[in-house]
Amino acid sequence: MSSSSDFQQDRHSFSGSPQKWNDFELPGDTLYYRFTSDMSNTEWGYKFTVTAGHLGRFQTGFEILKQMLSEERVVPHLPLAKIWEWQVGVACRQTGHQRLKAIHLLLKIVQCSAQRDCDLTLLKPLWQLFTHMENNLCHDVTKPGILLPLHRALAELFFVTENRVSELGSLQEYLLALNTEDHLHRCTAQ
C-alpha cells in the first residue's frame, strides 16, 4: 500500500499472518494497493479498513488552529468564544503532550482576543489542577523546585490570563469565579 501510484512514497508492505500487520497512516486522500499472491495458499487474500482522518486528527486540528490564530487578519473572523469553550474542554480531557498543546492554544487565544471574547471562568478545572500541583510542590521539600512542563504551561496561562483580566478591570470577579468557597474561607482564615 502506498500514497503514490508508483509505490515509491509512504510504502507499507505486509506478508504472512494478520498478527504481523499493524495500523498505519498515509497522507493525502488516495490509497494505492497491490495484491500479489505466490499461489502457495488458497486463502482469499486480505481485508483492510480505511478511515479518513482518524489517526493524527488531534495534531491536524492543532496545527490548523495554531496557524489560524497566528494570522492577524483571520483572528477577527473566528468565533473565539466558541473556540475558547472547545479548547478548555479539550485541555481538561486530554493528557500528556495533547494537553500541553491545548493549553498552548488557550494561551494564544487569550493573547489575541479582544475585550471580553472568552469566558475566562471556564478555566476553573485547570485552575484546580494547577493549584493541586502547586500544593504538592510546596509540600514535597525533598524534590528540587523544577516545574514539570504541564505545571509551567499552566503557570504561564494563568499569569497571562490574570494580566489580561487586570487590564479589563475584572480581576476580582475572575479570581472569585475560579476559587471554591472552601478555598476562599481557608485563605481568609490564613
Describe the 3D structure:
With 190 residues, this protein is mainly α. It has a domain at 57-179. It has seven helices and no strands. The protein has helices spanning 57-70, 80-93, 96-112, 124-139, 149-168, 171-178, 181-189. Helix 2 packs antiparallel against helix 3 (96-112) and helix 4 (124-139) packs across helix 5 (149-168).
Structure keywords:
single chain; 190 residues; mainly alpha; elongated
Largest sheet: none
- Indicate the percent of residues in helices: 40-55%
Low-confidence stretches: none
Strand content: under 5%
- What coarse outline follows from CA principal-axis ratios? elongated
Supply the helix-strand structural class: mainly alpha
